[in-house]
Specification:
The chain is an alpha+beta fold. The longest helix has 34 residues. α2 crosses α3. The radius of gyration is 22 Å and the shape is elongated. Helices cover 50% and strands 18% of the residues. It has a five-stranded antiparallel sheet with strand order 1-2-3-4-5, with no helix packed on it.
């Protein structure tokens, strides 16, 4: 999975909440104890921050901590490009509330995973059954199965607390954004890219390969 550096007040570089690129941030302010802007060197868009804590060193006050007001997307990575719209809606809502309610965000991302399973051909009634079905179909395999189960278990703990310690839960919930993006990439984006590449091959060669595949499959039945 791609390394993601969440936006932090006065950090010199992080993943931009607008373009998603890891880039240098130029911090500017007109009132150093109230508001700051961080301008992305990659897309030149800005994020707006409010000072939440100041520090007095005996001579003067300085801004010590701050929270991002705009864009209202929290500290989560941008949703994967091929994420279905209804899943993206839950993802973005989870990103907005994560800082205040990690459990609420985790529950929304679990719902997003359930909707993603529907997009992959499942019924969406039982998330565990959907994951096992996708494993049997070969859609989920290897690491992606562990990722899906981590999302499911963490999301379940959001509405049935006590199975995971609060410290472990908060750590796992923060990674759920990366996990659902990972599933979208492996289950939707990469198959689409492979299909587009295959379609670029000469039609005669594709037809011959498909005929051979069909013959090989029939010989096994």
């Amino acid at each position: 999975m791609t390394t993601y550096t969440a936006p932090e007040f006065q950090d010199s570089a992080f993943n931009c909440p607008h373009c998603g690129a890891y880039a240098h941030m130029e911090w500017t302010t007109r009132d150093y104890l109230v508001y700051y802007q961080a301008i992305c060197a990659h897309c030149e868009e800005y994020s707006l921050w409010r000072v939440t804590r100041t520090n007095f060193d005996g001579f003067q006050y300085s801004a010590d901590e701050g929270e991002m007001l705009y864009p209202d997307f929290g500290s989560a990575p941008l949703p994967a490009e091929d994420m279905p719209e209804d899943v993206k809606k839950d993802y973005e809502e989870a990103a907005q509330i994560f800082a205040k309610s990690p459990r609420g965000a985790a529950a929304l991302l679990r719902l997003g995973l359930q909707k993603l399973c529907i997009h992959l051909g499942e019924e969406g009634k039982n998330i565990n059954a959907d994951i096992r079905s996708l494993v049997n179909k070969g859609v989920f395999a290897g690491r992606i199965v562990q990722v899906a189960d981590t999302l499911r278990i963490t999301g379940n703990n959001a509405v049935h607390p006590g199975q995971i310690s609060d410290e472990d839960f908060d750590r796992a919930a923060a990674k759920m954004f990366d996990l659902i993006n990972f599933i979208v990439k492996k289950a939707i984006t990469e198959p689409k890219e492979l299909d587009e590449l295959y379609q670029q091959m000469p039609e005669n060669a594709r037809n011959a390969a498909e005929a051979q595949d069909k013959k090989a499959l029939e010989s096994k039945t």
